[in-house]
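Lab notebook: predicted structure, single chain.

Context: the supervisor wants predicted structures on file for every construct in the current expression panel, including those that have not yet been purified. This is the next one on the list. No modifications to the sequence; it matches the entry in the shared construct table.
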Amino acid sequence: MTGETETHTERTLAALSRGADRLVGVWLVLAGALLCAGLFLPAVSVQRFFLTREYSLAEGVFGFLASGDWFLFLVTFVFSILFPVGKIGVCVALWFFVRRDHPLTPLLSGWLTALSKWSMLDVFVIALVVLLLNGRLLSSADVHSGVIAFTVAVLLSTYAARRINVLSGDPKMRASNAP
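Prediction complete. Output recorded below exactly as produced.
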């Protein structure tokens, strides 16, 4: 950096990160792509008698709406679609666009880290559905690539959120990069 001026992007977490933390942005982009794939690829196939039907996570969520189960739709929409998309979006903003010393950075990153534990709720629900269907007579269920992509996206975004939280509150980084 030359002179007294610095650009806004020189004070973001992406610009200030060192070592393996430089990959957080890549993890977030990968998490976004995997989340999209995980929501729309087949996640579960259910076989009854000789008929097999595949469902994506998005189909399952909006299936609750179509059948009039508003509460189940709302819960699964918030935890399976809205929160993961919002978490990745906020993490991308905190990583690439918001200054590290902005007052909202540690607050938002702290909330994201705390709420990230709920991101695995829908993976747990899918596991329960598969176990439930496998226990019924003349039906079975199998997990497909959509669940794997979704799970990896959730894990990557959770790890990225935790790294952002650590880096946004790291006193060493704050002291060594003070203006």
